[in-house]
């Protein structure tokens, strides 16, 4: 051990020559470096001779250091001092000094490489950013190169470091100066390339910079024009910038809305284009297709061209001239596979992927054989799997994701094309099931080498057995059954025992998240097989799954897919911003989701029952008592899930399980409030007359939003002077007294119609078993597809949104009224009134998106937006409004105040004028650290005495316990 340690120390020893150079350098640097009051070193000498002397000393020292001695503490100390000197000397106005300084700085940066992460680079970044204003100077090019080099090598930045670097870039208007440079048509390609590369790097590393670029209309137009240049190198630089801008959700919207620009990006995807252009176009599409909204916007004119370009890039895996195995080729295929993950969203792009034989392309990439040669051989899955595992590639996880998603979005009656002995899709399904068996059951040594592939292939099998496509689902179940025959029933027992440890609390599911997820995927797959369903129920599978769900909800333990699928995290330093709704349909609670999936298959074979008369309200489902039977525990947990904003997939499967207890739909706060309208006849303007003479009165406005199929023709209404005619002076009593009568068919009875109306009003109903069939038929004829599917107990369709009570579309119709009076005086402004009405009609309060648009608003505009929520908070208290309006408003207010102390100062007086002291106290707490400055500057005078007392007491309280560093 001593000899080894001694050897390391010898390697770190510095030569006498280097030590002498270091000593001279330290003397030279000491002439300009001073220790400031905050104990931070700064270069504070503007004498040109001193600066040149320091530069000469740094030159000789830099020429003698290398990566070998970089870690020596003396060298590190000296480099830190040199960076301080560079940061100060670069503030000089002397172009000769600046030129020499840049030359030496670039040499040092080249030696440092990623080692620069160990040093404070903020001052150097500030000085370099400041030099970008000299657009026509020779110094701008080396400044841009150096700044780009620093940003490239910094890697992922800590929050504090990020803030300091962004302040340095923002304060020098670096983005604005780079934008001006890129708009200059006289720039050479080299100049343009350097500036474009720097801008791309800034956009990539600093999300706060993206707004000023995508909101710059002139720059965006000029960049679009560069795409048309004959030299593809210009287009490549522009596409790099677009790719970085697409990391911002708002920037993506701008790109999608510019059809001319977007068409050029699609053009770059073509097979005849330069390789680099295609790779960048694929990267752009990966970002554009990150959300379902983005995918739906692409499902128009260019959808087929995009899919064709993606599949063509994937298919180059086996082209003769593709130089298979080269790094560049692998990048193209990998980026194409990542872009093909757009199949996770539903849409007409799914059909185009099948049109261009995506299954055949996936098989070619997987096996290394063309479909033609593959179909001529005798298919032996074990041999194919062995060959696949021997030629592992990082692309395979994406293949399994693509396979799973195209299967789960496949139409029910889909039948693939089969050429040769084995169809491509058949072979893919068989290989996936074989590999899942090899990984999960045999647990061979190769398992550890392919751990990154275990979750994707297992999940692909799960999606295939749950596919709505009869062909895919039945084939996958067949292959899974064949492999399971090799295992004994004890395997299922061992699997359930491992899950029982989690349900009892003996094992934390987060301790080995991957194994937990794989075990649950296995149970969900086996639950679809008839020969194992009774076994799983008999072995207490349902009780175990319910207990796991209960534990996860109690302890808020979450496992999202990115934590168990490593291929989803292959870009370590990328930072997204301003994105919403990017989560997959199953959401971030995989444990709960897979438990619900398994329960959806097993509950039919159970004897779970509940006391239906008890289930009369949302309050019962949300009660805090969870004792009783497994059925009651499950029922209440499902109610809690449906009441919260959990992922659509989890809510859909919870709703599906609800149907086995006679509960259909999705209970909500608005639906609970709308129950009262069912029994309110004063404003009802429509009356259904049944064949037995019984009548049901309803409101046409509510039917228009929830079930227009039940409305009579508009002409019939006009005839009775309901929709048109009648002055605004007509009383509501007069209007309601003349109801339009609609005679119903003798096949419709009052009970089924009443249930349909209850569902339209509230979104949730309780149905007895003998009423399910006639109600399902009527729901189908009324266009209530979701209700009809739930009554028929059809599994949820992957990717579908959750239906909910929403009557906000009525706000667009001035012909309809629900209010008792035509004019209601509301003590709030227009913005607050608009949000209040939206909340009344939809149950959802519009929120402020705390994105780059908000961050770049002036404080006065932010104040105007936030005042509306303060008014709503006050109004909810004044009108005694229930339903969470007050709580939701306060949550919005708090989230905004945390981001802007100036906003807190402005909102205090407005809130105090309304007597909302809870908001005043929250705002005061956020600006407490500023109290001494406000006092010394006399700014406290604009506050009332009561507010000043609150600020003073808060400051005293915080002083006693100590202020947080961030404050």
From TrEMBL:
- Xref: SUPFAM superfamilies: ARM repeat, POZ domain
In Pfam terms, one family for this protein is ARM_6
Q: Which InterPro entries match?
A: ARM-type_fold, ARM_At1g04390, At1g04390-like, BTB/POZ_dom, SKP1/BTB/POZ_sf
Which Gene3D superfamilies is this protein grouped with? Answer: Potassium Channel Kv1.1, Chain A (3.30.710.10)
BTB domain boundaries: 684-769
Q: What pathway annotation does it carry?
A: Protein modification; protein ubiquitination
Task: State the PANTHER family in the record.
Answer: BTB DOMAIN-CONTAINING PROTEIN, OS06G0674800 PROTEIN
Q: Per its record, how is this protein called by name?
A: BTB/POZ domain-containing protein
Which organism was this protein described from? Apostasia shenzhenica
